[in-house]
């Protein structure tokens, strides 16, 4: 089976809430460990993440240890960065064995052609975000930020910005935009499954050309996706078990 989860936003909220969210995700992943073939983290794993050449943000080491344990036993883990956590260097790859991807990804999974992307580049937003997003991904301003605001200063500014601008609910326009983009991908590309996050709105939407899965938000809803021999399902982790929220699955893969 393949697992998809996004928008954990580790670092958002009170410390007790953050620890509970991390523990629940670890429990969920442990429950699937015997059959898992790959794990995809579809962006915004962290509420704010800036990696320096020799420093990384502290916290959530139990989750990171699980990722390392899985990759050590040859379970591939892929991390598609989101709008809250794009400033990775090489820590996740060299220390944890996790593949980090900065753009959309198209690849075969269990007989499907799957397109994966966080979704923030598509979402409607203010002029400020549309202007800032390319800068936040460009190596020159990122290098300047790390140089001029090293260590704690840079992380404190990122934390303040995240709390100031990033804690608002995502509006319905975002979900609509991502849904329309998924429809275009399913119609015009080889993909028959599109997986995204960002909207915080879990969706399992079959179309005549395939299926759109939005994993929703682990932080708010504890939702995630699963692809196995029976198809694709949207699930929620509750009371120490996975509850199926949506189906039917895709038809059997050719």
Can you summarize the main beta sheet?
A: 7 strands, mixed
DSSP strand count: 12
- Helices, by number, come to 8
CATH-assigned fold name: Purple Acid Phosphatase, chain A, domain 2
In percent, how helical is the residue content? Answer: 25-40%
CATH architectural name: 4-Layer Sandwich
Please state roughly what percent of the residues sit in beta strands, choosing from under 5%, 5-15%, 15-25%, 25-35%, 35-45% or over 45%. Answer: 15-25%
What is the N-to-C succession of helices and strands?
EHEHEHEEEHHHHEEEHEEE
CATH superfamily: Metallo-dependent phosphatases
Shape assignment: globular
- Which stretches of 5+ consecutive residues score pLDDT under 50? none
Derived from helix and strand composition plus strand pairing, the structural class reads: alpha/beta
> Mean pLDDT, rounded to whole units?
87
Task: Kindly report the spatial arrangement of strands forming the biggest sheet.
Answer: 4-3-2-1-10-11-12
How large, in whole angstroms, is the Cα Rg? 18 Å
Report how far the terminal alpha carbons are from each other.
17 Å
Q: What is the total number of structural domains? A: 1
CATH class: Alpha Beta
């Amino acid at each position: 089976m393949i697992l998809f989860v996004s928008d954990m936003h580790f670092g958002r909220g009170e410390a007790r809430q953050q620890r509970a969210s991390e523990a629940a995700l670890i429990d969920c992943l442990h429950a699937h460990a015997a059959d898992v073939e790959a794990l995809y983290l579809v962006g915004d794993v962290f509420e704010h993440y800036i990696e320096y050449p020799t420093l990384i943000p502290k916290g959530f080491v139990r989750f990171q240890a699980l990722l390392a344990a899985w990759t050590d036993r040859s379970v591939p883990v892929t991390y598609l960065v989101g709008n809250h956590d794009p400033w990775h260097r090489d820590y996740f790859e060299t220390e944890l064995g996790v593949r980090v991807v900065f753009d959309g990804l198209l690849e075969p999974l269990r007989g499907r052609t799957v397109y994966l992307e966080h979704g923030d580049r598509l979402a409607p937003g203010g002029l400020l975000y549309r202007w800032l997003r390319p800068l936040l991904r460009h190596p020159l301003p990122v290098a300047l930020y790390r140089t001029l605001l090293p260590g704690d200063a840079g992380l404190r500014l990122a934390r303040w910005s995240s709390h100031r601008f990033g804690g608002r609910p995502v509006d319905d326009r975002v979900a609509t935009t991502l849904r329309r983009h998924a429809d275009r991908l399913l119609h015009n590309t080889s993909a028959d499954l599109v997986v995204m996050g960002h909207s915080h709105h879990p969706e399992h939407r079959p179309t005549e050309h395939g299926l759109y899965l939005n994993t929703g938000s682990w932080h708010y809803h504890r939702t995630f996706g699963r692809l196995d021999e029976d198809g694709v399902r949207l699930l929620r982790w509750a009371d120490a078990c996975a509850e199926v929220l949506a189906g039917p699955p895709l038809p059997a893969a050719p």
